[in-house]
Amino acid sequence: MSVKVDAVLCMSCGGCVGVCPSLALELENGIKLVPVDEDCTDCGICERFCPVGAIKVDSQKRRLRER
Amino acid sequence: MNADYDVIVIGAGPGGCHAARIAAEQGMRVLLVEKRPEIGAPKRCGEGLSLGGMKNLGLKPDPKWAMNEIRGASVYAPNGKRISIRYENTIGYVLERKMFDKYLAVQAARAGARVLAKTAVTGLIIKDGFVRGAKLSSFGENYELSSKIVIAADGVESKAARWAGINTTNRLVDIDSGFQYEMVLELEEPDMLELYFGSKVAPRGYVWIFPKGKDTANVGVGIGGREAVPAKKYLDKFIQGHPNLKKGSIIEVNAGGIPVGDPVGKLAANGFMVVGDAAHQVNAIHGGGIHEASIAGMIAGRVAAEAVKKGNVSEKALAGYAREWREKRGKILHKIVKLRQTIEKLSDDDLNMLAENLTGEDLVEFAKGKRFLKLAKILMRRPHLMQAARILI
Ligand SMILES: Cc1cc2nc3c(=O)[nH]c(=O)nc-3n(C[C@H](O)[C@H](O)[C@H](O)COP(=O)(O)OP(=O)(O)OC[C@H]3O[C@@H](n4cnc5c(N)ncnc54)[C@H](O)[C@@H]3O)c2cc1C
Ligand code: SF4
Ligand code: SF4
Which end of chain A is more exposed for a tag (fewer CB within 10 A), N or C? Predict the structure, then answer.
């Protein structure tokens, strides 16, 4: 899993949790967004959704997955 | 079977609070859990609720949470052309969700439900193909409670339905990415909503100004989930271009996802129901979900009580919820999704053309899923919009 969340930017809105197809994210206590799951496919959907651009998924890895 | 509770409700938003209250009023032993330390906060909402919607919920506007009366709206096309509609009487309110959600939770507690904040559901107990309770976590303490039915009202970040085998994952084409500032600012018409459309302002969505008082407002944007530029950038740019907004103060910052696709097809499983944002029960054209979650919650709470009393909580027994909801709301919401899909196909030029041909009343009717024929006829005048028009009819 190569998902990095920038806690300074994150608004704890939970939207990324709802779009992640792999249940790989969790909004702990409704406050803290944490990547939790090794089943993450580095698909980049969460990064695309985030209203403030707080998520970065390693694009190198992503390309590997797409192949 | 002796369970700790008859019904466990996950999430104390409008959907969960209504479900919990109604089930408790029917004599059910209800637990309503909310993982956040404060119910209703921080809000993920523009806080608009129509008067009709409020009446459907049996609520009387209370100045503690109904902050401002709205009498109309101004809608701006990409070229700046304004369509306004103003009524003599109040047609809606801008709420204080923090107070509103808490009020609904208090009502649920007064009806007999046990409400627990800062308590998260971390998993479901599933036995013999039935959901039979929930795994909970609070202040690091983990425990399990059994129940006859679990109602998931866990909002846009919902996982519970997916644990129960119902796929509620939001596809990016069917969710809007939202960002909002609550501001103190100069407002010309504090009783009018303002909405701005256009691909530069908000691709697929719109910018809203929802006044909460004479000089405060929620100023937000929703854009299609697939956009590469984050929603915040669009809102900041919009604000920079509007002198009144540019001078304003920011007193709260909000973000969130708004499901704008079709509601999920399956709303119940054995011992389980899903309501509200978690089930994508939202008005896809304006993104309003308070009313929809509440209506679904009320139906689910009642059906849950009936099923427990009859001693049958199978998917079949709970299907009454889905049936009733589809009849009351699902059919209309499905039509409104079609409208969204049509509008999405229009260029700024097309939207400007529409603004020349539509009245404020038309827009109000569209948002209720009505007058689509008029819209389709206007679109069909332009050959390249035939296809878009066909989605509508
Ligand atoms: C930017 C924006 C603007 C909006 N503007 C409007 C508007 O003007 N008018 C309108 O009507 N609607 C609006 N909406 C939509 C509206 O906010 C939602 O539709 C509504 O809140 C849905 O209610 P709900 O009860 O389904 O879920 P929510 O209100 O989201 O409540 C779900 C609750 O469940 C909790 N939860 C989640 N998982 C767990 C768990 N595992 N354990 C315990 N608790 C959990 C969450 O913390 C949350 O409190 C807007 C949304 C956004 C994002
Ligand atoms: S979508 Fe972005 S802001 Fe919202 S919880 Fe996820 S990382 Fe945080
Ligand atoms: S990259 Fe894809 S799988 Fe991984 S957390 Fe984001 S959305 Fe989920």
Answer: C
- Which CATH number does the domain housing residue A41 bear? 3.30.70.20
How many beta carbons lie within 10 A of that of residue A37, not counting itself?
14
Give backbone dihedrals phi and psi of B147, rounded to 5 degrees, phi first: -150, 165
Neighbours of B387 (CB within 10 A): 11
| pLDDT tens digit sequence for B29-59 | 999 999 999 999 999 999 999 999 999 999 9
Q: Which residue of A has its CA nearest to B230?
A: A51
CA distance A39 to chain B (A): 15
Q: What pTM was computed for the model?
A: 0.97
Task: Kindly determine whether residue B156 and residue A11, on different chains, have CB atoms separated by under 8 Å.
Answer: no
Q: Evaluate whether B360 touches B84 at the Cβ level (below 8 Å).
A: yes
Chain B residue closest to A20 (CA)? B169
What's the gap between Cα B90 and its chain centre? Answer: 21
Domains of chain B: 5-44+98-170+262-333 (3.50.50.60)
Closest atom of ligand 1 to CA, residue B36: 47
**Residue type for B215, please?**
D
Mutate to test the pocket of ligand 1, among B8, B21, B45 (most ligand atoms within 8 A of CB): B45
Residues 6+ apart with CB under 8 A from B354: B77, B346, B375, B378
The count of domains in chain A is 1
Structural domain for A60, as ranges? 3-66
Alpha-carbon distance values, B295 to A42, A51, B110, B216, B300 (Å): 37, 28, 20, 29, 9
Q: Please state, in angstroms and rounded to a whole number, the distance separating the CA atoms of residues B360 and B77.
A: 12
Amino acid B209: pLDDT: 98
* Closest listed ligand to the CA of B255: 1
Pairwise CA distance, residues A57 & B372, whole Å = 42
B204-210 contact pairs (CB < 8 A, 24+): B204/B176, B204/B344, B205/B176, B205/B178, B205/B287, B207/B234, B207/B235, B207/B238, B208/B46, B208/B48, B210/B46, B210/B47, B210/B48, B210/B70, B210/B94
pLDDT, one tens digit per residue, over B319-340 is 999 999 999 999 999 999 999 9
